[in-house]
Amino acid sequence: IQHPPTVWEFYILTELSRRSVRKAGQFDLNQRIPTVYRLIEYNDYSVMFMQRAPQTLLVCNNSRKELVSYGSDFANYHISRDRYVPLCYQLYYSIEMLRIFDYMHRLRIIHCDVKPDNFMVLHW
Question: Does the keyword Flavoprotein apply (predicted)?
Answer without folding.
Answer: no
